[in-house]
Design goal:
Blueprint (H helix, E strand, L loop, with lengths): L1 E5 L3 H13 L4 E6 L10 E5 H10 L1 H9 L2 E10 L2 E14 H14 L3 E4 L13 E4 L6 H5 L1 H4 L2 E14 L6 E8 L2 E9 L5 E7 L1 H6 L7 H11 L1 H4 L4 E2 L11 E7 L4 E2 L2 E3 L14 H18 L3 H31 L9 H9 L11 H11 L3 H23 L1
Parallel strand pairs: 1-2, 1-7, 2-6, 4-9, 7-15
Antiparallel strand pairs: 3-5, 4-5, 8-11, 8-12, 8-13, 9-10, 10-11, 14-15
């Protein structure tokens, strides 16, 4: 096949690797509109299960990703000067720049052409048997046919800012700070030997009350450094470079599409779907999309049937993850409901924020049910059964 991947992010690069390994005679080009090494972002997270899948897809790139990642095995929550430590699943962080360099190097070693500073326009697609739209949430290829794809975007209520810091943390850390205008918080995690990622979030009322809506980037970072002084421990915060456009406050965009394919054009990664950053799944889902699409093309000779299979498989896999992301975002949007609980209880419910049952049960009662469910299998099964049903009932009533 002749394959064009539009977008040099994790999804497009990894898909090109998988397809070239399956059949070296494939003619594959990855088109990336930006210069090499100019990607935005700091570090990305993933969990141990992803590495197992990557080893099955391409052991060489999996080893390179693993060797260039940092690990942690616990979470820390800082609230009002108190810190609570909670053991958790093993997590990993890797710099986005480093991840893309590794994938691009591996793709080129297999014979994939990686063409930087080459923008593909929606009205002039590459001449190929298959065009993979891996050009992100703002996909120009998808937007050209938005009516066909049935694209819908839902904006989150809270505002957030993606930053870096020179403090190298040793665990995934949540820091919650109360101000006279409300709470502001940070998700922070290491991704290398020199930097950590810091994602700052707050309600729009707090954002405006603190003057962050009108502050310059420098003044805004200075204020945030004061607010998160305990977390930063004397280190500073870093925005994006001037070339990247500077750090910007945003509202998260949850993207869904009615279909992911049109003829020989197929959506992958953030071009097809997004999930709230608070569950740390964006990169994982992009790579899993690549694995699924490559697998479908390997096993099903007919292109249209293969693309249909890929879409069905990934939509089914995304259902629980999208639900978890939606409830996680809502947990933070309703932070005052939980923040004044005793620290151990608050952190326990922070870990349960993906639950569809939590929004409908008083927090302290949910905490007691959750503790009891840890001891009683019957109660645990009932909790898993009730949550999704209650959530679907409430959502259906809301739509009506």
């Amino acid at each position: 096949m002749k394959i064009a991947c539009v977008g040099g992010g994790p999804a497009g690069l990894y898909f090109s690797i998988l397809m070239k390994r399956q059949n070296p005679s494939h003619d594959i080009t990855v088109f990336e509109r930006n210069p090499a090494g100019s990607t935005y972002g700091w570090g990305v997270t993933y969990w141990a299960g992803l590495l197992d899948k990557l080893r099955e897809g391409d052991p060489e790139s999996a080893l390179a990703v693993s060797e260039n990642s940092v690990r942690w095995s616990e979470g820390v929550a800082q609230v009002g000067g108190q810190a609570t430590v909670h053991p958790g699943d093993e997590g990993f962080g890797i710099g986005r720049h480093r991840l893309l360099d590794l994938l691009a190097e591996r793709a080129r070693s297999l014979g994939v052409r990686v063409d930087f500073e080459h923008e593909v326009t929606a009205d002039r697609l590459p001449d190929a048997d298959l065009v993979v739209a891996a050009d992100g949430v703002n996909s120009a290829l998808r937007e050209r046919h938005a009516d066909h794809f049935g694209s819908e975007v839902e904006l989150g209520r809270n505002t957030y800012l993606w930053l870096g810091t020179t403090r190298v943390l040793d665990s995934f850390t949540f820091s919650f700070v109360e101000t006279e205008h409300g709470w502001i918080w940070c998700y922070a995690y290491p991704f290398g030997g020199e930097h950590s990622t810091c994602v700052v979030e707050c309600s729009p009322e707090t954002w405006a009350g603190l003057g962050l809506d009108t502050a310059s980037e420098g003044d805004g970072l200075a204020l945030l450094e004061k607010l998160f002084a305990d977390l930063l421990d004397g280190h500073g915060l870093i925005g994006r470079t001037r070339r990247e456009g500077g750090a910007q406050w945003l509202n998260f965009r949850t993207l869904t599409n009615r279909t992911w394919r049109r003829g020989n054009l197929v959506l992958i990664g953030d071009a097809a779907h997004t999930t709230h950053y608070s569950i740390g799944a964006g990169t994982t889902l992009a790579l899993e999309d690549a694995l699924s699409l490559a697998g479908a093309l390997r096993d099903i000779p007919d292109l249209d049937a293969a693309l249909a299979h890929y879409e069905r498989e990934r939509r089914a896999a995304l259902l629980s993850i999208q639900s978890a992301a939606r409830h996680s975002a809502q947990w933070y949007e309703n932070l005052p409901r939980y923040i004044h609980l005793p620290p151990a209880q608050m952190f326990a419910l922070l870990g349960q924020r993906h639950s569809p049952l939590l929004p409908y049960v008083p927090p302290q009662l949910y905490y007691r049910i959750d503790r009891a469910a840890g001891q009683l299998e019957a109660l645990r099964r009932f909790k898993r059964w009730l949550g999704p049903r209650l959530a679907r009932t409430v959502q259906a009533r809301s739509r009506r």
